Amino acid sequence: MRNVAVIGSQWGDEGKGKIVDWLSEQADVVVRFQGGHNAGHTLVVGNTTYKLSLLPSGVVRPDKLSVIGAGVVVDPWALLSEIKTVQGLGVKVSPETLLVADNASLILGVHQQIDKAREALRGERKIGTTGRGIGPAYEDKVARRAIRVSDLSDPGELRTKLSELFAHHNIYLKAAGEPLVSVDQAFAELTEIAPQILSYAAPVWRHLEDLRRRDKRILFEGAQGVMLDVDHGTYPYVTSSNTVAGQAATGSGTGPTTVGYVLGITKAYTTRVGSGPFPSELTDEIGQQLGERGHEFGTVTGRKRRCGWFDAVMVRQAIVTAGITGIALTKLDVLDGFSELKVCDGYELDGEKLDYFPSGTKAQASVRPIYRTLEGWSQSTRGARSWADLPGNAVKYIRLIEELIHAPVALLSTSPEREDTILVKNPFED
Length: 430
Ligand code: IMP
What we know:
The chain is an alpha/beta fold. Strand 3 and strand 4 (48-52) form a beta hairpin. It has helices spanning 16-24, 76-88, 109-122, 134-142, 155-175, 183-198, 204-213, 246-250, 285-293, 312-322, 361-366, 392-405; strands spanning 4-8, 29-32, 41-45, 48-52, 65-68, 73-74, 98-101, 105-106, 201-202, 218-221, 261-267, 270-272, 306-308, 310-311, 326-330, 340-349, 352-354, 368-375, 409-413, 421-423. The longest helix is centred in the middle third of the chain and has 21 residues, at 155-175. It has a ten-stranded mixed beta sheet, sandwiched between helices. Helix 3 (109-122) packs across helix 4 (134-142) and helix 5 crosses helix 6. The chain has twelve helices and 20 strands. The chain is globular, with a radius of gyration of 22 Å. The structure holds inosinic acid. The site of inosinic acid has 21 residues, from helix 4. Inosinic acid binds at residues 11-13, 38-40, 127-130, 132, 134-135, 223-224, 228, 237, 239-240, 273-274.
């Protein structure tokens, strides 16, 4: 039996929520292993739309265990508010169905304050973060001064750690002309919610090991995308965690061999929110059309996403750095009706041809896409449930993508609905 990790192969927003939800039917447990409530996963089940940020997508299915691993940065207030929202939609969430790693680091108000202050200071060169405090919270974790979930059970330790943490941050806040943070206030706010958070806290690595030994199926749910990975993405225009599949093991407390098939969710074109290089971006009418047809607005921040042609160079690189076995191609229907489609299959930099995305900031901003042009299709692919329902040119487009990225299409999603999915290869089956 093998487990599956689902990750985004571009800049996030590839439609992971739907695919994870679809796969979670076959899983026993769904684990989030990085990121925080910067993620926005939309699930459409019947007439209900669930917008999840921190909770694993399996939470909407009864009898599935949802796990938030140690690699996630947890805003405890955001977590409680999301639990309340989904409970209001009839979803059962209890300490039997949700486990939060007791060694996960917390996002506090100060992290959001610093995130926003830094972005304002960067001005034109801002990252375009979600403002959720993700970067500053990961910095504190790596600097060994973070407050972790388990600290909530020890008021004395919590107060000492908060004093150390805030002494550090107040130096910066003072210099930046920002209001200072108060230990007493944060302590009071955290102790108020501590019992609720602690009711979900657990050594999740032990639970996962137990499930693994009992041959239960684990689905690892990534957030963001490979090009936002802090090492392998378009640094510094990235998020502050590793989004590649290797993190599924580290961020949940299991070994790399526990992760079997790696499914890379891949949009049939490209989008990006926030700043940073985007070689195949379309700032013309076609980009506008892609955005309108694809409803390309951020789930978390409502920001308009930048749109462009499919970049096969970028995805080919993501396949390698993230260890992707096969892809789930999403939103093909957004391309319906275009007379002509382009796919980027190389870059040009200072007169030279490149078949990979370079790591220098200047080079990343300067590469020019080299395109292949294909004939489009006029028929609708929306809701197609079999290969035979697809127009010939759509099949050609998919085959070209497979050829250029060096990975097969395992799933094809043809609408936000659960059932509108064409299965080529079930990632859970060998
Ligand atoms: P942060 O994760 O809030 O620090 O934002 C860093 C970068 O990652 C920004 O460009 C964000 O727009 C982007 N980002 C963060 N989370 C997501 C996501 O879930 N989807 C797409 N982009 C994201």
